[in-house]
C-alpha cells in the first residue's frame, strides 16, 4: 500500500467495459484507494448525487451518455458543492479530448493505461483535490469567525447607541452645547459603525448559506413610500428633492418576497443616491415589464405570468460612476473612488438580495451626470 495515502480517498471508475473496470479497480485498490464503479453515465451521476467522491475516472466514449455529457452535468450541478477532479480515459483514436477539457475535465490518460502513468495522474489530481478542500475549509472558518465576530460586536454597539440616545434626549441630565455637539458626533459615528457591522453580518449569512428568507406578498408601492418617508430627513438636510413616481399604467404592484430584505435593499439604494448627490434630486420610479411584449395599457393583472417583472429605478443627479468602476460595482469590498464611498459591501449585499428573489440589478451611469440603478423583480403567479 502507498504510504503517501493519509486517508482512503474514494474514486469512482466509470466505463462500459468490464475488463477495463476490473483492471483499473485492481490497480487502485492495491494502492489503498476505495473504488466504486459505474457502467454508464446515468449510473455515475446517480452515485455522485448520493455520495460524492474524491476523483472520477471517466471513459470518454460510452453508449448513450458519453463522457462529454457526464462531465458537463457534473460541472453544471450546483448541488455538488465540493470540487471533484475528472480524469478522462480515452482510446488512441478518440477524436476530441480538448472538448472534454473545455467542458471541465482536469486531465486525460490514453488506453491501454500503464500502471505508473495511471497512479501518477491519480496522485496529481488527488493532491489538487486536497489543496482545494483545504482552501475551502480555511475560507469557511474565516467566514464563521467574521460572522461570530460581527454578531458579538453588535451587542456593545447597540448598548452604546441607546446610552447616547438617552444623553441626547436629556434623560441623564442637561448637557452644555459643547457636550451636545460631541454626543451628536459620537452617536452618528456609532450609528455608521453599527450599520457597517449589520451589513457585514448579512453578507456572511448569505455567503455561508445561513440566510433564510420569509416570502410573503409584498406591496411594493407601499414599501417604497415607507422607505422614502424614512429617508426624507436626509434629503431635507441636503436641500434635495425626492420624488416617488408610480407609473399610471402599472397593473402589477405586488410580488412574493421577503419584506425585511426588500426594505434593506431599497433603503440602501435610495440612501446611496442621497449620499452621493449634493444638488438636484433623487427620483424613484416603479413600472411593469412583460416578456410577451405587450404594453402596460393592454396588460392586466389577470394574465400576468412568471415572465412579468416589476421594475424599480433609483435615479440621482450625483457625480456619476466612472466606466472602469461600473464593471465591478456589485462585487464584494469594491470601494468606489468617491470620497463618500463606504466599505464596498452595500451594493454587493443588494445584489445578493435581488438574486435571492430571482431578479436582476444593473446600473446605468454617465460620469458627471448621475446614475440610475435598475432592479427587476419577477412576478410569479
Model description:
By secondary structure, this protein is an alpha/beta fold. It folds into three domains: 10-113, Rossmann fold (3-Layer(aba) Sandwich), CATH 3.40.50; 142-207; 216-379, 2-Layer Sandwich (Heat Shock Protein 90). It has ten helices and twelve strands. It has helices at residues 18-30, 41-50, 67-76, 97-102, 115-169, 177-207, 220-237, 259-275, 323-326, 346-356, and strands at residues 10-14, 34-38, 55-59, 86-90, 107-110, 216-219, 241-246, 254-257, 281-289, 308-316, 360-365, 371-379. The strands form three sheets. The chain has a five-stranded parallel beta sheet, with helices on both faces. Strands 7-9-10-12-11 form a five-stranded mixed beta sheet. Strands 6-8 form a two-stranded antiparallel sheet. The termini are far apart.
Précis, in short:
This protein has helices at 18-30, 41-50, 67-76, 97-102, 115-169, 177-207, 220-237, 259-275, 323-326, 346-356; strands spanning 10-14, 34-38, 55-59, 86-90, 107-110, 216-219, 241-246, 254-257, 281-289, 308-316, 360-365, 371-379. It is α/β, with parallel strands linked by helices and 381 residues long.
